Q: What sequence folds into this?
C-alpha cells in the first residue's frame, strides 16, 4: 500500500504555524514551548490558536531542550536559531527527539533558511530522525521570495487530517499556479542550480560583512553566521541599539535591533540583526561602507 500523503502546502510558514496550532489544539494539546528569542508574531499566532506558551532559553548551542518539561509541543529553529544564529548541538538534537518520544510531544522544526549553510556540512532535518514526532516546515521565502507565500509542512500521519482541515477552513488551498511553477522549477533542476548560485553569492556577502566590520568597527562581534541571510552584530556593553538603528536609517540602512526579538528581561546585550541579502548587487558595497561608518563612528 502506498504511503499516505503527508505534505500540506501553506501560504508561508506564517500560515503553517497557525494551522498547526489549531490542529494541535483540536488534538488535545494545551501548550507549546517556544524559544525565548524569536519572532513575536509567531508567539501571537500560537496563542491565537488557543495554546499557552512556555519558554525555552537559547544559548550558543541553540535551544535549552532540557527545559521542555511537560509542554505538548515545541517550536525549534534548530538549524539556525532565529535571531541568535546558533545551531542546535548534536546532543540537544538527540535530547529533543528523546523528549518527543518519551512524552508523545511534537517537535515543529522551522527550517526557514536551511538551504543556506556555509561553514559546515549540511545539518540533517530533525524530522528524518523521528517522522512520527517531528513536523518539518520549509518555506520558499528565503530561497525565492517572501511575497510568493509558499511553504510546506511534512506531517506525522496523525496530524495530516487536522492540518488539512484547518487549511480548508483558512483559505481552501494555496495557489495552484505558484505550486505548479515551483514544481516545474524543482523538477527541471533549475531550482537546485539557483540555490547553489545564491548560496555562493550570499556567502561572499557574509564574508565581506565580517571583513568590513573587523576593519571599521573592531569593537563589535559578528556571530550566528554559519548559515542563513542574517548576522547578529553584538555591540559593546552599554550601546543603545535603538539609537544605532535610527542613525543607520538616516543613512538609508534598514537594520533591526535585537530588541525586536528579545524577551522581557532577556539576558543578551545590545545587538543588531543585520540581513545582508536585501540590497541589490550594485548597492551592496555602498550599503556595507555606510554600515561600517555607522558602527565604527
Ligand atoms: C524564524 C522564521 N521562520 C519562518 C520564516 C518564514 O516565514 P514565511 O514563510 O511566512 O515568510 C521567517 C522569515 O522569513 C523567519 O524569520
A:
Amino acid at each position: 500500500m502506498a504511503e499516505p500523503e503527508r505534505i500540506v502546502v501553506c501560504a508561508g510558514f506564517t500560515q503553517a504555524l497557525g494551522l498547526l496550532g489549531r490542529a494541535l489544539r483540536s488534538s488535545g494539546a494545551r501548550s507549546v514551548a517556544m524559544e525565548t528569542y524569536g519572532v513575536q508574531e509567531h508567539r501571537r499566532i500560537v496563542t491565537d490558536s488557543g495554546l499557552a506558551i512556555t519558554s525555552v532559553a537559547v544559548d550558543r548551542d541553540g535551544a535549552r531542550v532540557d527545559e521542555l518539561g511537560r509542554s505538548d509541543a515545541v517550536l525549534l529553529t534548530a538549524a539556525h536559531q532565529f535571531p541568535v544564529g546558533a545551531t542546535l548541538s548534536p546532543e540537544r538534537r538527540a535530547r529533543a527527539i528523546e523528549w518527543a518520544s518519551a512524552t508523545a510531544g511534537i517537535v515543529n522544526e522551522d527550517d526557514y533558511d536551511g538551504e543556506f549553510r556555509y561553514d559546515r556540512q549540511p545539518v540533517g532535518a530533525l524530522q528524518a530522525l523521528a517522522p512520527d514526532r517531528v513536523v518539518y516546515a520549509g518555506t520558499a521565502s528565503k530561497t525565492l521570495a517572501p511575497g510568493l507565500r509558499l511553504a510546506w509542512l511534512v506531517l506525522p500521519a496523525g496530524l495530516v487530517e487536522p492540518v488539512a482541515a484547518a487549511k480548508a477552513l483558512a483559505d481552501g488551498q494555496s495557489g495552484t499556479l505558484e505550486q505548479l511553477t515551483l514544481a516545474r522549477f524543482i523538477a527541471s533542476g533549475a531550482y537546485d542550480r539557483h540555490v547553489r548560485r545564491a548560496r555562493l553569492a550570499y556567502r561572499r556577502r557574509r564574508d565581506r560583512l565580517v571583513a568590513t566590520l573587523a576593519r571599521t568597527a573592531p569593537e563589535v562581534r559578528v556571530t550566528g553566521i554559519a548559515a542563513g541571510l542574517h548576522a547578529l552584530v553584538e555591540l559593546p556593553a552599554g550601546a543603545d541599539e535603538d539609537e544605532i538603528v535610527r542613525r543607520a536609517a538616516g543613512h538609508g540602512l534598514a537594520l533591526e535591533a535585537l530588541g525586536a526579538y528579545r524577551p522581557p528581561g532577556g539576558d543578551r546585550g545590545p545587538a543588531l540583526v543585520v540581513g545582508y541579502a536585501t540590497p541589490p548587487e550594485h548597492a551592496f558595497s555602498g550599503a556595507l561602507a555606510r554600515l561600517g561608518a555607522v558602527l565604527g563612528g
Observations:
- DSSP finds eight helices and 13 strands in the chain.
- Residues 12-14, 39, 77, 82, 110, 112, 139, 141-142, 146, 151 surround pyridoxal-5'-phosphate (CB under 6 Å).
- The helical segments are 12-26, 40-48, 90-103, 157-171, 176-187, 190-216, 241-250, 281-296.
